[in-house]
Amino acid sequence: MNTYGTAELARVALSYPAIDNHAHPLLKAEHRSHLEFEGLVSEATGQALTQDAIHTLACFRATAQLGQILGLKGELTWEKVKQVRDALDYDRLCRVFMEATGIQCILIDDGLGGSSQYAEDYKWHDRFTRSPTKRIVRVEALAETLLKEIFDSQLNREEMNPYRAYIGFIEQFYEAVKQFANDPEVAGFKSVACYRTGLNIGIVQEGQAVEHCVTMVMLRYEAQRTLRLVDKPLNDYIVNITLRVAGECGKPVQFHTGLGDSDITLALSSPAQMQSIIKSYPETKFVLLHSSYPYTRDAGYLTAVYPNVFLDFGEVFPFLSADGQCAVVKQVLELAPTNKIMWSTDGHWWPESYYLGTRQAREALWKVLAESVAKQDLTESQAIGIVKGALFDNANRIYDLGLAPNWLDN
């Protein structure tokens, strides 16, 4: 057997139907150039994105792979790839990259900042999949929408009342989460507490502290007309309500962990910070997103010892080098039960993000598992079962999607 196993393992790894358990919407055609394309290969911002990200191994590899599917010849450069993709008809561009993924179903978090203004509706993405797209509701975005509506209503009447706003919010937020939890279009929820106040989420919230936070948010909104929840008691309250309702209704709750832009506090992005709250909601399914990189082993431990914890090994594709991606997959497999791991693209804005996120993940799974087969650590049949579970079966079961894999060779 060669290093990368038999043709059957390669065929399954590279073309088995996939459920993308966490992604974001694509930009509308009229906004296709609204954001810096370098965001495809990096979470950086500003100069670190536009000047530095293009000098990473991840970008060099992405340049080669995008150039290949675009049919480019000769010496490839990032700028050449950008010029060619910008000149393509947008519908064709989306189809070229999306149809090459083998993604059967996408679970879309449409609460990413800018989605409502610049991106397509989640159902629009059905044109690229063989099963209907489902929503992931971002709870901090939901809370901000409700608070803004409450504040605007009071401002219009010129009678700002923090206590009334607080009471209205806690009633409306609970009812909204309950309604979404019972909505068949919603596959689960997502929290970005990692970005806002960190993953050291408190279990007990004092009503007075939450009320005080609502008051502070109201005052900032009244003065600046901007609203972003960064007050820990309020953010912790939002997460706890979501976990309680989701547990009652059987909907998973995704958490951004690890890798992110400069807005996170890295030390508070490890899922190890979540151990207490995981234990406090044993009936709720926790999905740790983004491989928790660079805290992958922490996530693997939690997945191994708590039955309600699951691990997504996404986003490192395409942000890490090829060797780095394989190292992450190996760390995931060190301890995490293989029936509890799931894959995602974290695709966002550009169809190329879905393509690279799929192609590179498939290749990493194939190479890592084939090496294990070659060393006789597992059989090829077991390796194929792991691939099918990671790409489709586990997400199908955990999110209760009720899908059958619709094979389409790529």
UniProtKB/TrEMBL annotation:
Organism encoding this protein: Phanerochaete carnosa (strain HHB-10118-sp)
Name of the protein this chain belongs to: Amidohydrolase-related domain-containing protein
Gene Ontology molecular function: hydrolase activity
InterPro entries documented for this protein: Amidohydro-rel (IPR006680), Metal_Hydrolase (IPR032466)
Domain Amidohydrolase-related, first and last residues per copy: 242-381
